Amino acid sequence: MYEQALEPSGLTAMQFAILAAVARNPGASRGAVAELLDMDISTLSRGLKPLLGDGSLALASGEGSGRGAVLDLTPQGRARFELAVPLWQHAQRAVHESLGAAQTRQLHDLLAILPGEPA
């Protein structure tokens, strides 16, 4: 449902989650983003590859901060993310309407206890 909703943006659900994490945490390291998303570095790297390749994200030196390379949204990445947000919100509303409030809460509770390895 989310993948289909995001199609106009050209993003997958994982890529959207990565852009959202970086948008909320500019200058975060790969490790920090992986931790925020509860995924391992290799999974994150697979999701980052197309976003770095298409210019949506940039790797910058974390010099002066005591960190290695950090991730930042590019202007193009911010535009893609902003295009995708209402698409994601529409999918969220559709899930809520399909399941109802109680089942949506149950789903969120179940998802919160799962390990963070996306399919």
Summarize the structure.
This protein has 119 residues and is mainly alpha-helical.
Features:
mainly alpha, Arc Repressor Mutant, subunit A, 5 helices, globular
- Strand/helix succession: HHEHHEEH
Strand content: 5-15%
Text of the CATH class: Mainly Alpha
The beta-strand count equals 3
Low-confidence stretches: none
The average pLDDT is 88
Strand arrangement within the widest β-sheet reads: 1-3-2
The CATH architecture: Orthogonal Bundle
Helix content: 55-70%
Structural class, by secondary structure, is mainly alpha
- The coarse overall form would be globular
| Oligomeric state as shown | single chain
The main sheet comes to: 3 strands, antiparallel
Q: CATH homologous superfamily?
A: Winged helix-like DNA-binding domain superfamily/Winged helix DNA-binding domain
CATH-derived topology: Arc Repressor Mutant, subunit A
Explain this structure.
- With 119 residues, this protein is mainly α.
- The protein has a single domain (2-113), classed as Winged helix-like DNA-binding domain superfamily/Winged helix DNA-binding domain (Arc Repressor Mutant, subunit A, Orthogonal Bundle).
- It contains five helices and three strands; from the N terminus they run ααβααββα.
- A three-stranded antiparallel beta sheet has the order 1-3-2.
- α2 (13-24) packs across α5 and α3 (30-36) packs across α4 (41-53).
- The radius of gyration is 15 Å and the shape is globular.
- The two termini are 14 Å apart.
- The mean pLDDT is 88.
Sequence-ordered SSE layout with sheet pairings:
Elements: H1 2-6, H2 13-24, E1 28-29, H3 30-36, H4 41-53, E2 57-60, E3 70-73, H5 75-113
Antiparallel strand pairs: 1-3, 2-3
